[in-house]
Amino acid sequence: MSTPLIELDAIRKAYGGGDAPEVEVLHGVSLTIHAGEFVAIVGSSGSGKSTLMHLLGCLDRPTSGQYRFCGVDVAGLDADELAWLRREAFGFVFQGYHLIATESARENVEVPAIYAGMPAAEREARATALLSRLGLSARHDYRPNQLSGGQQQRVSIARALMNGGRIILADEPTGALDSQSGIEVMALLDELAAAGHTLILITHDRAVAARARRVIEVRDGRVVADSGPDASRADGSDSGWLEQMADGSRTRAATLAGDMREACRAAWRVMWINRFRTALTLLGIVIGVASVIVMLAVGQGSKQRVLEQLSAFGANNIYLGPNGDSARQNGGRVTLEDAAAIRTVPNVALVMPYLEGQVVIRYGNLDYRAEGGGVSSEFPQALNWKTARGMFFSAEDERTMAKVVVIGERVRDALFKDDDPLGRRVLLDKVPFQVIGVLASKGAQSGDSDEDNRVVLPFSTASSRLYGNPYPSWLTIGLADGAKLQETEAAIDALMLERHRQRDFRMFNAASRIAAQAATSDTLSLLLALIAAVSLLVGGIGVMNIMLMTVRERTREIGIRMATGARQRDILRQFLTEAVLVSLVGGLAGVLIGLLVGGVLVLFGLPLIFSVTAMVGAFACALLTGLVFGYMPARQAARLDPVVALAGE
Ligand code: ADP
Ligand code: MG
Hints:
Bound molecules: adenosine-5'-diphosphate, magnesium ion
Helix content: 40-55%
GO molecular function: ATP binding; ATP hydrolysis activity; transmembrane transporter activity
Protein name: Pyoverdine export ATP-binding/permease protein PvdT
CATH architecture of the largest domain: 3-Layer(aba) Sandwich
Strand order of the largest sheet: 6-7-8-3-9-10
Membrane topology: Multi-pass membrane protein
Number of helices: 22
Structural class: alpha/beta
Domain ABC transporter: 6-245
InterPro entries: AAA+_ATPase (IPR003593), ABC3_permease_C (IPR003838), ABC_transporter-like_ATP-bd (IPR003439), ABC_transporter-like_CS (IPR017871), MacB-like_ATP-bd (IPR017911), MacB_PCD (IPR025857), Macrolide_Exporter_MacB (IPR050250), P-loop_NTPase (IPR027417)
CATH superfamily of the largest domain: P-loop containing nucleotide triphosphate hydrolases
């Protein structure tokens, strides 16, 4: 005779062990079941029937003994192969229905096909057809709690049939039903047996068992009676069963895209159902991402502003002035001769003397105090400072000590308001001058910068007519090549030492100040980013928390999914997808809120610079957080034992 479908040989099963005392529930059960049989396993409560069914359905492993399925020792199969058997060979019908509460009737029926990789359209059509066949055509979209017990049991039968249901394992299928529903369900099972499904019915009720063509009686973990193999079974042939199954399942290999779509759909459903809790947990991630974006934008913006302000005065200039201390000792001065000498140093493009001092400007009967400066005609070029109106004085004006003045925006505003200042005569410390130009404002929008509170005039005029001082306050030295700043500075230093024979002068350059400023704001940015990172971490812990809770709450769902053929990696994927989706939504909300807050700050005049890199980075961090912190709970879910998970609450 051919290989039997199921062969149990001296199967023993003990619970407990470890801390709990070990209790043996099955004491050496041996039986043989052929394909197409309709077998009832009957016994009183506690006799070990459910334990036996879990072993038969590969939901659990025996303590000892051998279980051969189509001649193959099940003990030699790994977790994935067992999942494949549960998916392709078995269909479970439980006393408590074990439907997934968050999914509709049709979605529940579809679950086994999802893990078998059936395309969505085919899956839906098949589930719909099965539900209609079982008299539930109007109830597709109902949730389990909207269905009666009999209807739920019919949904679970449809689910058992979804992947073919070659072997239907029904554990007290009518146990929780009223008698009318029980009769209907039994009639259905009868039909399935007649149609060639192998049916193993577990019951404590002898009347129910009597409907089977073979009755096996179990008492205290032992088979005490067996009416013998059913000779009239519909399908006599067992051979090639496993191969047939393998062929059937190989034709539809699961696609990753389909799996992911399914996982996302389910994850979204769960999130939506728990949306309030999810939203609260997500606050960490939202705040983290938003603060990364805003803080980096603030840091970047203020850095940019500082750089702009500094470079407005020529980032590559070297400034040389007398050293204060030496000046007291022996009147250290920088002279115009020094300036001329420095002009010959390689890489020096220009040397502009600056003679500074406060002046009172009188126009009509208005007096206004401003910073005064005697400069050369190279001023616009040296300080990158354009003339907004009129013109700057020329080298000729310098030579002739022309009494011309170019005024800053704030001076213009104070003295002339809406009048045209060009060509007007003003008194600088009582000396008459003619206004020939207005400097462009250095202030952001309005002329409110201190730099704008100034007037400039030819150096020669300033030194002889205004201040009576021939020595520049400092020299502004412009370089041809900013990259050679250090060498040039050293060369000037050597030259000046040679000329003065002592260090009674000092030099500084804006580049080093810019570098220092940039370093400061980089440190600040780093600090801000660190704060943001901490809140992302807190967000990640939130995700982990929600996922751990979810796994605990949904242990039974995990068991159901495993019983219907989910592999460990399916479960892992599902829970990881949930974690990632949660953080994805959090990350997205964070980006939006970050932009919103940033926008408001911009409206209040803060110089924000949003960086796409920061946004993408923060978003990626959020995703990564979900992945990292979701992994542990997801793995915990995937590693659950099917029977343990099924029994969980
Ligand atoms: P039946 O389905 O025939 O009512 P079960 O197979 O459910 O019986 O249980 C048989 C015996 O095994 C019972 O005494 C029960 O207490 C014990 N048992 C079942 N499951 C477990 C378990 N997970 N841990 C410990 N004991 C168990
Ligand atoms: Mg039971």
